[in-house]
Amino acid sequence: MMTLRRGLENSRNLVTAHLLDGGIDKDPAVSLKRVCDIALEAKVYTECIPYYPFVLGAQPVRPIDLAGFYAAVANEGARPTSYALESIEQNGQVVYRHRAEAPVQLKEADRVAFYQLKTMLAGVVERGTAAAARDLAPYVGGKTGTSEDENDTWFAGFTNDVTIVVWVGYDNAEGTRRTLGQGSTGASVALPIFQTIIRAAWANGVPKVALAPPSREARTFIVDVPIDLASGTRLPRGGNHAFVEHFRLDAKGQMVERKTRFVDAEENARLKEARRQRAARRAPTVVMQCFLFFCTTSYLR
């Protein structure tokens, strides 16, 4: 078993894939449409091809569009409009200047969901696949990415003020897929470039401050609960090894616990068979209840 947070921090794609199988809706097709709707509203893609590998990023994306989405994560869902040109001058005269537009608040996911995601991406830098840049925490959140056969490497990262997306690969690769070489990953290739850029940004006046806490609107619907980071088990009083997770509250102030199992089909079949055999022997059944971010301790039934 693995929590969604730990799966995202360590790029365990199986956990992400299982969101389509009960993590969002009991019908995988409905779950996929929900992911597509969010991606389209966030302008990550201009169209969504509805096939399941899409949830793992199996569709071309432009860095400028990805940067807009990560900026929205940093802003609790307020997406700025991405653009490439700031201004154009001719003979010392400005003939074009980009006209700033106010960020647009995305509606397919609320502020609480974006804040939860932001804290997970901060965990990627603190102790996940981008831990080589741990010195940037708690100022930066982000995500590494590596495509099949090390053809493409990514790091998308953000602070409160700046979002940077780094892609390294062979552009078009002359019509064929071309690898960067064995061992090339987002963490080893793209992340160091991000580190250089963000440090230069800080040196040139961009504020170097910790990632912002939840807004007042989001804070109303969030409760902080101490858990064991490895297992997701809730801890009654916290302690030295407790990690504070941010759970959603419903309109009545009750903590929302969406029941989800992040196990593969083979493992699930094995567990079912084990339960059947125990029931046949009239032995007590060991039950582990799993929720979106954590699993409770086992108990007998």
Give a quick account of the main beta sheet: strands, pairing sense, barrel closure. 3 strands, antiparallel
Backbone shape: globular
Strand content: 15-25%
CATH level 4 superfamily of the largest domain: DD-peptidase/beta-lactamase superfamily
CATH architecture of the largest domain: 3-Layer(aba) Sandwich
Q: Can you tell me the CATH topology of the largest domain?
A: Beta-lactamase
Q: Can you walk through the features of this model?
A:
It contains eight helices and eleven strands. The protein is α+β, with helices and mostly antiparallel strands. It has two domains: 61-203, DD-peptidase/beta-lactamase superfamily (Beta-lactamase), CATH 3.40.710.10; 216-300, no CATH class. The chain is globular, with a radius of gyration of 21 Å.
Keywords:
301 residues; alpha+beta; 2 domains; 3-stranded antiparallel sheet; 8 helices; globular; disordered C terminus
